[in-house]
Amino acid sequence: MGRLYLVTLLFLSPLASWAQNDYDYPTLWDPNTIVSSSVDYADGDAKLKGYLAYSNATSGPRPVVIIYPDWDGISNYERFRANLLASMGYAGFVADVYSQSVQQGPSIPVANRSALMMPFRSNSSYWRSRVVAALTTVRTLDIAQKDKIFAIGYCFGGGGVFELARAWPNTPGLLGVGGFHPGPLVTAGPKLQPGSPLRVYAFSGADDPGITGDSVVAWKNEMEAANGTWGFYNYGHTVHAFTIMENPVWNGDKNVSNGYNAASDHASWWALRGILLEAFQLTNTSNAYTSAGGAYDYQTGIAGAKLMSA
Ligand SMILES: *[C@@H]1O[C@H](CO)[C@@H](O)[C@H](O)[C@H]1NC(C)=O
Ligand SMILES: *[C@@H]1O[C@H](CO)[C@@H](O)[C@H](O)[C@H]1NC(C)=O
Ligand SMILES: *[C@@H]1O[C@H](CO)[C@@H](O)[C@H](O)[C@H]1NC(C)=O
Ligand SMILES: *[C@@H]1O[C@H](CO)[C@@H](O)[C@H](O)[C@H]1NC(C)=O
Ligand SMILES: *[C@@H]1O[C@H](CO)[C@@H](O)[C@H](O)[C@H]1NC(C)=O
Ligand SMILES: *[C@H]1O[C@@H](CO)[C@H](O)[C@@H](O)[C@@H]1NC(C)=O
């Protein structure tokens, strides 16, 4: 998330040890119904620990949304998204990318985050292996419908879900991905394979200084060359990290690269919700314009309003 005021705090802090509390996200679901647990898994020698959430208001396997964290790793932010998705009837699974050996969240000094992230960004094989490990793991969970999996990611994790898509066909069960304020758009590794059936979406800020016009064109060309289903959502008056509500609201200063934008956050979240209904085939296609969005009854597979949340 890389808040600018965090950088300031870092240099002003007289403390030898860095301490930054995790943000207290609102509980927008019935806490009595959200069951959460950690899930241990591995990628080679790396020991990983994901976060799983689902609603016990209904029973049985359900579609899964995997969430790949931004550059401070797993924090309350990703758990908030997983719990929201759980309240809609999906299983939410926050993937671990950095491993259990890293104490993750806002307590990682901003100055340390690049060092954690760059080994993945500089080696697409390494990165793909790590993101595929979460997909492989969720398919083993009893709560999962193994062939109804979608992946989203934020910032570093948004770049990560594009790498996950590029790992196709080594991505069984995956229906599509969505990267929010993703970085980077382009890869140094092999591009998206032609014939990929995956849906690939980007949700980007039009004023994000990290998203150059050239990289948008390159990404579009890559998607077109693969002839798949893709979309690039470009939100106006919006900079990097626009979905992360613990960020200060962006004030329009072009020199400030990060900031929250509630309208773009909400619009992109609702876009995702529609994309999930389509990918998981939870819309009544003979009634696509009027069937209820949002929650659904996965037992009949029809969108309704059985489990509504914010
Ligand atoms: C941050 O990085 C520095 C230098 O690389 C290291 O000494 C320090 O232990 C790291 N701090 C944390 C909290 O990881
Ligand atoms: C990149 O990652 C792969 C898979 O982990 C590894 O085999 C390879 O040695 C790495 N390449 C470099 C240059 O570090
Ligand atoms: C691209 O996809 C469309 C729709 O699925 C298909 O009709 C068309 O044959 C594909 N083109 C190529 C070159 O694969
Ligand atoms: C933004 O940065 C430019 C170039 O560094 C500088 O000239 C300008 O004064 C800055 N604007 C604001 C509002 O800080
Ligand atoms: C789907 O929508 C059509 C048209 O409104 C309706 O006739 C049909 O009953 C719906 N199917 C289900 C399973 O709800
Ligand atoms: C979900 O089930 C209800 C009853 O059906 C229990 O009362 C809750 O304790 C349970 N919630 C969790 C988080 O396990």
Write a brief caption for the model:
The chain is α/β, with parallel strands linked by helices and 310 residues long. The chain has helices spanning 4-12, 76-87, 110-121, 124-138, 156-166, 213-226, 262-279, and strands at 34-43, 46-55, 62-68, 91-94, 144-154, 174-180, 199-205, 229-235, 296-297, 302-303.
Provide an overview of this structure.
The protein is an alpha/beta fold. It has a single domain, classed as Alpha/Beta hydrolase fold, catalytic domain (Rossmann fold, 3-Layer(aba) Sandwich), CATH 3.40.50. Helix content is 29%, strand content 22%. The protein contains 7 helices and 10 strands. The strands form 2 sheets. An 8-stranded mixed beta sheet has the order 1-2-4-3-5-6-7-8, with helices on both faces. The chain has a two-stranded antiparallel sheet with strand order 9-10. The longest helix is centred in the last third of the chain and has 18 residues. It is globular, with a radius of gyration of 18 Å. The N terminus and C terminus are likely disordered. Bound molecules: 2-acetamido-2-deoxy-beta-D-glucopyranose (6 copies). It holds the Pfam family DLH. This is Dienelactone hydrolase domain-containing protein. InterPro entries: AB_hydrolase_fold, Dienelactn_hydro, FrsA_esterase.
